[in-house]
Specification:
The protein has 332 residues and is of the alpha/beta class. It has 2 domains: 229 residues, P-loop containing nucleotide triphosphate hydrolases (Rossmann fold, 3-Layer(aba) Sandwich), CATH 3.40.50.300; 65 residues, Alpha-Beta Plaits, CATH 3.30.70. Helix content is 36%, strand content 26%. 35% of the residues are buried. Bound molecules: adenosine-5'-triphosphate (ATP).
Length: 332
């Protein structure tokens, strides 16, 4: 890595270059295998992106490249307009990174660990005490400040690592499996903390296998499969464009229901019952409105017509099945 010289002013960026993270054609090779195959994407300011994918998909490798801890074979990563390879120090001052496997300075107290990280991230000395107290308080470590890191439980070590990652109030926070080892209450607190950090203007990328938790706070989902990004969308948009399970409820039974549904474009898997029917619908909002109109015009007494709740996990598993069917899936 080169020394950080001639740092460009982020305000010099051209119109449209608003991404906090811009990744272009990123290729990363381990000695024995390629782990990233020309990955490209942008991360919008203020978003919380859930980075998901099966074991070995390349999530950790990608995170480490974003954090300038690995040198890719080709391609580029820019954070706030700064190339991470050319300006690693400036990037690290803007970024917090919690690695999936991390070390702590076991002989130092929690306070000293936080102080060390604050200093390493250029927090001015007069501000460090307040920064330590704020970070410790946010992670429920205020009563542990004088305890040595080596004597903390696994979950408390995880909390300390998150506290270290946010001590300098970065504008971008990368978290690789942040909830690992946390008890249920601490996981809920972590979800709240991530939303609070977002509300303060931070942009977050969170890798995790616990989709139910990611759903609590993520604005975007990025799916990796075999070293490629196979999906990257706003979560609402993703659910809208996918085949969506729908439910129609009738005021009273009507013979025409099943026939109208089975004859309509975009409808499959119709299962009628005494109160109405469930079916799968593929189409946008206008197509959905058209289907409702068809039912009403056929005299079907529609009392309710709505998507059945689909979790992030449902969408993820559906996409994964599709990607496996396509080989490695779509390009990045
Ligand atoms: P997980 O969900 O299991 O943490 P991941 O999506 O984070 O997986 P990576 O750890 O980035 O995946 O690994 C991507 C690919 O690179 C895998 O095929 C893995 O075996 C390979 N890989 C990772 N680290 C090394 C290494 N040090 N040397 C060689 N290959 C590696």
């Amino acid at each position: 890595m080169s020394l950080d010289t001639a740092v460009p002013d982020p305000s010099d960026r051209g119109a449209g270059e608003t991404a906090v993270v811009a990744v272009r054609d990123l290729v990363y090779d381990y000695p024995t295998a390629r782990a990233l195959f020309g990955v490209s994407f942008d991360i919008a300011p203020g978003s919380i992106t859930a980075l998901v994918g099966p074991n070995g998909a390349g999530k950790t490798t990608l995170m480490r490249c974003l954090a300038a801890l690995e040198t890719p074979y080709s391609g580029s990563v820019a954070v706030d307009g700064l190339d991470v390879e050319e300006h690693p120090r400036q990037v690290h001052e803007r970024m917090g990174f919690l690695q999936d496997f991390f070390g702590l300075y076991d002989d130092l107290t929690v306070r000293r660990c936080l102080d060390y990280h604050a200093a390493a991230r250029s927090v001015p000395a007069p501000e460090r005490r307040a920064a330590i107290e704020r970070s410790a308080q946010r992670l429920g470590l205020s009563d542990r400040l004088d305890q040595r890191a080596g004597t903390l439980s696994r979950g408390l070590r995880q909390r300390l690592a998150v506290a270290q990652a946010i001590i300098h109030r970065p504008s971008l926070l990368l978290l690789d499996e942040p909830a690992s080892g946390l008890d249920p209450e601490a996981r809920q607190d972590l979800s709240r903390l991530l939303l609070a950090l977002q509300a303060e203007g931070m942009t977050l990328v969170v890798s995790s296998h616990i989709l139910a938790e990611l759903e609590d706070y993520s604005t975007h989902m990025m799916i990796m499969h075999q070293g490629r990004i196979t999906e990257h969308s706003a979560i609402g948009k993703m659910a809208e464009t996918a085949a969506t399970p729908m439910r129609v409820v009738l005021a009273e039974p009507h013979d025409a229901l099943q026939g109208v549904l089975e004859g309509a474009a975009g409808v499959s898997a119709v299962a009628a019952d005494g109160r109405g029917a469930s079916f799968v619908f593929t189409g946008d909002d206008a197509a959905r409105a058209g289907l409702l109109r068809q039912l009403v015009e056929a005299g079907v007494p529609v009392a309710a017509f709505h998507p059945e709740q689909r979790s992030m996990q449902d969408v993820y598993l559906e996409r994964l099945q599709r990607d496996r069917g396509n080989g490695a899936g779509g390009g990045s």
